[in-house]
């Protein structure tokens, strides 16, 4: 049974890797995006119309970087942005700048989500801290109403990564690319129902500063 971690452990390992070891947060974000991008290509989905639904935390930054990787590959992709870009994290602000360089369209039309063939869920990851409401809930309901295949980044948005509980409303994903280690909440019945196939991405974050040898 491979290791699964809590939100607090994920945040602690993240901070240790950045602040003590010295790997920049943006490098971790790029590796998270590349792992998710490769899983999307390997999952062999219909990539005719991809919509990345992103908020302004680092989960959103991961998704905006995935959008750029898809755009460079010649795939029709747009970003449905939730929240105020002026309040984005530094890493997500940088990803928005890069996405702008590649002229990736940003939409606020929920119909674009409903009509997508693949949706990337980059709304909330381990930073989810309260019940999902308002525009965030509207976007998650649109994602779940779509016929599209849905790929969640790190945690299906709306799921508490410690307990697997749905905080108001949560994305039901076909697959989830989760960073570093699986999350204990995704091993629960409800967590599994929302995560779909879970891919664990090695992005350079390890509990003991190195990748543990497979048991
Ligand atoms: N740990 C790793 O290995 C890496 C993780 N990455 C990604 O970063 C996210 C965590 O990012 P963070 O900015 O801490 O939080 P989120 O993006 O998950 O959440 C966004 C933001 O939203 C606010 N918020 C919380 N709950 C609600 C709510 N119910 N309604 C509205 N807004 C809410 C809160 O302020 C949060 O900060 C992790 O999951 C990974 O995807 C790194 O990119 C790579 C390494
Ligand atoms: K997510």
TrEMBL record:
Catalysed conversion reaction: (6R)-NADHX = (6S)-NADHX; (6R)-NADPHX = (6S)-NADPHX
Cofactor: K(+)
EC number: 5.1.99.6
PROSITE patterns for the chain: YJEF_N
GO molecular function, one term: nucleotide binding
Residues engaged in binding K(+): 59, 121, 157
Annotated binding of (6S)-NADPHX, by residue: 58-62, 125-131, 154
Record Pfam families: YjeF_N
Function, as annotated: Catalyzes the epimerization of the S- and R-forms of NAD(P)HX, a damaged form of NAD(P)H that is a result of enzymatic or heat-dependent hydration. This is a prerequisite for the S-specific NAD(P)H-hydrate dehydratase to allow the repair of both epimers of NAD(P)HX.
Matching PANTHER family: NAD(P)H-HYDRATE EPIMERASE
Protein's UniProt name: NAD(P)H-hydrate epimerase
Species the sequence originates in: Levilactobacillus suantsaiihabitans
Gene: nnrE
């Amino acid at each position: 049974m491979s290791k699964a971690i809590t939100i607090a452990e994920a945040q602690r390992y993240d901070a240790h890797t950045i602040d003590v070891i010295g790997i920049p947060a943006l490098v971790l974000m790029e590796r998270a995006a590349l792992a998710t991008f490769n899983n999307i290509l390997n999952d062999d989905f219909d990539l005719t119309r991809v919509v990345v639904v992103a908020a302004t935390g680092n989960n959103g930054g991961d998704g905006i970087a995935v959008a750029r990787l898809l755009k460079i590959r010649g795939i029709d992709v747009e970003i449905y942005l939730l929240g105020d870009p002026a309040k984005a994290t530094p890493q997500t602000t940088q990803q928005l700048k890069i996405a702008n360089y590649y002229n990736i369209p940003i939409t606020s039309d929920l119909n674009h989500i409903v009509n997508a063939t693949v949706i990337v869920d980059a709304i909330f990851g381990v930073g989810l801290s309260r019940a999902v409401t308002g525009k965030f809930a509207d976007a998650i309901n649109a994602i779940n109403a779509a016929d599209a295949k849905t790929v969640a980044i790190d945690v299906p948005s709306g799921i508490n990564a410690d307990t697997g509980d749905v905080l108001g409303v949560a994305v039901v994903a076909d697959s989830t690319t989760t960073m570093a280690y699986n999350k204990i909440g995704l091993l629960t019945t409800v967590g599994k129902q929302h995560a779909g196939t879970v891919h664990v991405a090695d992005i350079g974050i390890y509990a003991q500063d190195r990748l543990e040898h497979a048991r």
